[in-house]
Write a structure and sequence with these properties.
It is a single chain. The protein contains 1 helix and 34 strands. It is mainly beta. The protein folds into 2 domains: about 1-155, Hexapeptide repeat proteins (UDP N-Acetylglucosamine Acyltransferase, domain 1, 3 Solenoid), CATH 2.160.10.10; about 155-309, Jelly Rolls. The strands form 7 sheets. A 9-stranded mixed β-sheet has the order 1-3-6-9-12-15-18-20-21, with no helix packed on it. Strands 22-30-29-32-27-34 form a 6-stranded mixed β-sheet. A 5-stranded parallel β-sheet has the order 5-8-11-14-17, with no helix packed on it. A hairpin with a 4-residue loop joins strand 20 and strand 21 (about 150).
């Protein structure tokens, strides 16, 4: 098999792909499966129940334990740590292993720790030294201990609208097809301030339902789905939150921090809400009553439906 291994490396597996390079003092046990064109760094250890995809980089000092699956094009930084036993005891085999999955294109920073049973979704970026204690959604950038989402890869933030901005129906900076950010009318006087919107004008559909999202802890993520037919109009009526919209080609992040700012989300747009302030209250108007069949909760399915048109 046409792969390279350093003379000090011990490779017991007979399933190593063409073009893969395995560094000094690495140890790959029998049964491990490593794909094509991978880079396995010095002093790595890979158990027999591990699957590594194509074009994966595993930097020096990493141990990959039974049950791990790393998909294509992932990057594992130096000394990243993975667990597969939530309650380890010396010389006592666990009742069951909790598998860890790193999906296509994800990157794990140096010295990060990923607890047992975690799934890291596609294109995630885990910061150096982060401690990942729960599943991480697609495209999220997470840092800290415990790791929390601070942004989304590929979703360029939209510059905030100035308070004096006129009413607009569309913004050139909006990169996501069909998504409209609107400054809603504001009427201030001595009694207070009033903001409003009208159906078929500011809200471009007949409203059939509304719901409120509140009391969201800052580390929680809402949404993470698209709708087949449903239209939505979002207003953060108290506090603030961020919305990431994605049309399958372009993504953009919008900060909703005023009751006079509304965001229209058309059908077939993937949307995520996060970065809620403690006092954040999100009001959503929708074009139809709740229908679970209208939801698309798998991003791969969403992309396939967009491709079909």
């Amino acid at each position: 098999m046409a792969f390279f291994k350093h003379t000090t490396a011990l490779v017991e597996s007979d399933s190593v792909g063409e073009g893969t390079e395995i560094g000094a003092y690495a140890h790959v046990l029998a049964g491990a499966r490593i794909g094509r064109e991978c880079r396995i760094g010095d002093h790595t250890f890979i158990e027999g129940g591990v699957t590594v995809g194509d074009r994966v980089t595993v930097q020096c000092g990493v141990q990959l334990w039974d049950g791990m699956r790393i998909e294509d094009d992932c990057f594992i930084g130096p000394n990243a740590t993975f667990l597969n036993d939530p309650f380890p005891r010396s010389r006592r085999a666990p009742e069951r292993l909790l598998p860890t999955t790193i999906k296509r294109g994800a990157s794990i920073g140096a010295n990060a720790t990923v607890l047992a049973g975690i799934t890291i979704e596609e294109q995630v970026m885990v910061g150096a030294g982060a401690v990942v204690t729960r599943n991480v959604p697609r495209n999220a950038v997470v840092v800290g201990n415990p790791a929390r989402i601070v942004s989304y890869a590929g979703a360029r933030p939209l510059a905030p609208l100035p308070a004096t901005a006129p009413v607009v129906s569309d913004l050139e900076e909006t990169r996501v097809a069909g998504v409209i950010l609107r400054r809603l009318p504001v009427v201030p006087d001595l009694r207070g301030t009033l903001s409003f919107g009208e159906v078929s004008r500011e809200i471009p559909f007949e409203v059939r339902r509304y719901f409120l999202v509140f009391d969201v802890s800052t580390e929680q993520v809402r949404g993470e789905h698209a709708h087949r037919e449903l239209h939505q109009f979002l207003v953060c009526i108290h506090g603030r939150c961020s919305v990431v919209a994605d049309d399958g080609t372009h993504g953009q992040e919008f900060l909703l921090d005023s009751p006079s700012l509304g965001l229209y989300i058309p059908p077939m747009t993937w949307a995520v809400q996060y970065k809620y302030s403690r006092d954040g209250v999100l009001l959503a108007f929708t074009s139809a009553p709740y229908d679970p069949a209208d939801y698309i909760r798998d991003y791969a399915e969403f992309l396939e439906l967009k491709r079909r048109g």
